[in-house]
Amino acid sequence: MHVKELLSLKGKVCLVTGGAGRYGKCIVEGLAEAEGTVITASRNLAANEGVAAEFRARGLDVHAAQLDQADHASVVALTGLIRERFGGLDVFVNNSVSRPMQGYRGPLEQFAESMRVNATGMFDITREMTDLLIDRGGGSVVHISSMFGMFGPDLSNYDGTTMGEPPPDYFFHNAGLLALARYQTRVLGKHNIRANCICPGGLYAPEIQPEPFRRNYTKKVPCGQRLANPDDIKGVVVFLASQASAYISGEAILMDGGMHC
C-alpha cells in the first residue's frame, strides 16, 4: 500500500473529546486534513460548533456534538448520535480532561471530583466508543496522556515562580491511561481494536506559564529548546489513527522534545 494511503483516514469517522481545547483543536484539524470525518465533543457545544464551522470553511469535514463525560446519559446520547448520524465510529481520541485539584494538599473532594470525571467518566465513554468500534469491525483508540504518566515532576521547572506543586490526580490518571491501553490491547485485540497513548510534554501557553517556568523548562529540551506547539501532535495522532500503525498497540509514544532521553 502506498504510504499516502496508509496515512489516509478517508471514509473513517473519528471522535475527539475536548476537541475545542488547545491540543484538541489541532488533533481535530490533523484528522480532518487526513480526510477523516471528525466529530468534536465536549460540554461547551458553542465552542465545538465554532471549531467545526472554522474547519468546514476550509473544506474539512468536521462536526460538533455535546458531551458531559461525567454524565452517563450524555455519553449514551452521543453514542446514539454517532451511530444514527454517522453510521458508526472508526477512531476514538480520548483527549478530554478536567483539572479540579490544586496541589498535593487539595481537599479530598477535589480528588473525588477528578476521579468522577477523569476515571469513571473517562472509562464510561471509552467503553461506549469501543463498542461502536466493535460494531464497525475494529478501529483505533488514541489516549492523550502526558509525559507525567511516565515520569514524576521536575520541581526545578517551578523555581522562581508561584505556580506551586503540580496536582497529584493529573499524574495518577495519566499513568492509568498507559495501563488501560495495554489492557485494551489484550482484551479488545480480538475485535481488531488497537489502543495506544501519546505522552506530550509541556505545551506553550504563555497566558498561564510565567517566564521563569518557560526558561527553566525549555533549556532542558534538545529539540529547539522550546515547549511543544499544537502542530507537534498532529502527525503522531494521524499515525496512530491510521493503517500506518496497524502493527502497533499497547504503546506509549513520548513526545517531549527529547527532554527525557
Layout of secondary structure:
Layout: H1 3-6, E1 13-17, H2 22-33, E2 37-42, H3 45-56, E3 62-66, H4 72-86, E4 91-94, H5 108-136, E5 139-144, H6 168-188, E6 193-200, H7 211-218, H8 231-241, E7 252-255
Parallel strand pairs: 1-2, 1-4, 2-3, 4-5, 5-6, 6-7
Helix pairs in contact: 2-8, 4-5
Your description of this structure?
The chain has 261 residues and is of the alpha/beta class. The chain has one domain: NAD(P)-binding Rossmann-like Domain (Rossmann fold, 3-Layer(aba) Sandwich). It has helices spanning 3-6, 22-33, 45-56, 72-86, 108-136, 168-188, 211-218, 231-241; strands spanning 13-17, 37-42, 62-66, 91-94, 139-144, 193-200, 252-255. A 7-stranded parallel beta sheet has the order 3-2-1-4-5-6-7, sandwiched between helices. β1 (13-17), α2 and β2 (37-42) form a beta-alpha-beta unit.
Q: What is the 3D shape?
A: globular
Quaternary structure of the protein: single chain
CATH topology: Rossmann fold
- Total of helices: 8
The description of the largest β-sheet is: 7 strands, parallel
User: Strand arrangement, largest sheet?
Assistant: 3-2-1-4-5-6-7
CATH class: Alpha Beta
Mean pLDDT: 96
CATH homologous superfamily - what is it?
NAD(P)-binding Rossmann-like Domain
Helical fraction equals: 40-55%
- Indicate the radius of gyration in whole angstroms: 18 Å
What structural class is derived from the secondary structure elements?
A: alpha/beta
- End-to-end separation: 33 Å
At CATH level 2, the architecture is 3-Layer(aba) Sandwich
Regions with little confidence, pLDDT below 50 for 5+ residues: none
**Count of β-strands:** 7
Overall tally of domains: 1
Strand content: 5-15%
